[in-house]
# Entry
Amino acid sequence: MTMPTILACADAKMKEFNGEEFLEKYRGKKIIFVGLIELQPVALICMLHAVVPKSKYTLTTRGSLNIFTLPEYRVSVMELKNGFLVDVVKESVGQVLKLDSISTAGMWKGNDVLIFNSFHWWNHRLERSSSKTWIIWRPTESP
# Structure
């Protein structure tokens, strides 16, 4: 099954998505999306499931990690929800963004494809204090 070609701009021609080709190419591989990018992994999962609708897929959750697996192809598509990639911890001054601390990095190891999306950083401007997730950023070693 192929999906219709989607054009990024008027003159661009993109190759149609071929789910069977994708599954063969990524047979035995692990693909992980890191960040706040829920629609991208879900879209990929839907396109892959459409190719093998009778597959005995598994969908598991381990904390902030969602894992979709097609056992016939040993392909896993994972989503690790982590809006800042780095850690946000509570300290006496409030929520602190630790720019040199990534406690979830161990979950990235052993994956064949790693897709980051850190757009979330830019939604938290200092002047919008009511919606800030963090109040200050600094290296872990700082007092």
